From TrEMBL:
GO-annotated molecular function: heme binding; iron ion binding; monooxygenase activity; oxidoreductase activity, acting on paired donors, with incorporation or reduction of molecular oxygen
Domain of life: Eukaryota
InterPro entries tied to this protein: Cyt_P450, Cyt_P450_sf
SUPFAM superfamilies with a match to the protein in the record: Cytochrome P450 (SSF48264)
Gene Ontology BP, a term: sterol metabolic process
Pfam families: p450
Claim: Iron is one of the keywords in the record: yes
Keywords: Iron, Metal-binding, Signal
Protein name: Uncharacterized protein
UniProt source species: Camellia sinensis
Cleaved signal peptide residues: 1-19
Length: 342
């Protein structure tokens, strides 16, 4: 028996090595076949891909280096990578890429979000179980765009100038002026644009409620743009929980608003100030198939709009203030109420 044991162990070791070699060879050949027609690049680690590299670049204050390094390594116009749990991701770089993307939306380019985004924001059960999350998002994007297309015209947006002006004045007087010696514009701009979005989209005017929403949205965004690991303690898990809380609050607001609109309709009250906002529009407007969205679907769309404007609008405002500070002659013209054309 003592003589057989080394022989048996050798056979097991040889078999294991052979099996691992075959498995490695299989996946290598499979990956090679799958990437023959893909742009140059690499997918990094399993599951997380190159997400960690992107996050580390951001923590160092230079997220753009993630792209610059890969443009140098692979291609200055197009390369592939894997981020946030998605194995198939391609980056287009340069003016020609922008032209291609913006001129081929829907035709050759589809809306895409990381897998973590789907976990956080897809709450409704698809009508067709065979539809993937990406297919659902694409269909819902088309449907929602059709619903709000007319609402976002310049004539409709003019109705909100008074609200924008009042919120801006309050923020400058109560939030910006007291911190003028140590003002972080980016953070204050984010608070301003978020409160404005809550006012316009949900009619939430209570500052404490807005602050609660903003705190939860910060956790949601941190989780969406994190490693795609969903278990207690991870950023994604916190994002999912916070998104659920936000959704419940927004659904409650929508139901209350719906009751108010129904009462106005019963009383033949056609006050335009209470019926022209986006929430009323979504509640009373059907899509091209005559279907109305329910409260949860509307809540998902509102959350999407809040997320979409959370960083973009505040970043734009921050850079406007930055350049006005750097170019006093432009600032003076704006201060006088003139539009500066350079």
């Amino acid at each position: 028996m003592d003589l057989l044991l080394p022989f048996i162990l050798s056979i097991l070791l040889l078999s294991t090595s052979l099996a691992l070699s075959l498995i490695f060879s299989f996946f290598t050949n499979k990956q090679h076949k799958c990437t023959q027609n893909l742009p140059p690049g690499k997918t990094g680690w399993p599951v997380i891909g190159e997400t960690l590299d992107l996050i580390l670049s951001g923590l160092k204050g230079h997220p753009e280096r993630f792209l610059q390094e890969r443009m140098r390594q692979h291609s200055s116009t197009i390369f592939r990578t894997s981020l946030f749990g998605s194995k198939k991701m391609v980056f287009f770089c340069g003016p020609s890429a922008n032209k291609f993307l913006f001129s081929n939306e829907i035709k050759h380019v589809a809306t895409w979000w990381p897998r973590s985004f789907n976990k956080v924001f897809l709450s409704a059960t698809p009508a067709d179980p065979s539809h993937t999350p990406d297919m659902i998002i694409m269909e819902e994007s088309k449907r929602f765009r059709h619903l709000i297309l007319g609402f976002l015209k310049l004539e409709a947006l003019q109705n909100y100038i008074e609200i924008m002006d009042s919120v801006a004045k309050r923020h400058i007087e109560e939030e910006w002026a007291p911190k003028i010696d140590n003002l972080v514009v980016a953070q204050q701009a984010k608070l301003y644009t978020f409160e404005l979005a809550c006012r316009i989209l949900l009619r939430v005017t209570d500052p404490s409620k807005v602050a609660q929403f903003e705190d939860r949205f910060g956790n949601v965004l941190a989780g969406v743009m994190s490693l795609p690991l969903d278990f207690p303690g991870t950023a994604l898990n916190r994002a999912i929980k916070n998104a659920d809380f936000i959704r419940q609050d927004i659904v409650a607001i929508i139901k209350k608003r719906k009751m108010s609109l129904d009462e106005q309709q019963q009383n033949n009250n056609k006050d335009s100030s209470t019926t022209r906002d986006l929430l009323a529009h979504l509640l009373h407007t059907a899509d091209e198939n005559g279907k109305f969205m329910n409260e949860v679907e509307i809540a998902d769309k509102i959350i999407g709009l809040l997320i979409a404007g959370y960083d973009t609008a505040s970043s734009t405002l921050t850079f406007i203030l930055k350049y006005l500070a750097e170019y006093p002659h432009a600032y003076n013209e704006v201060f006088k109420g003139n539009i500066y054309n350079g």
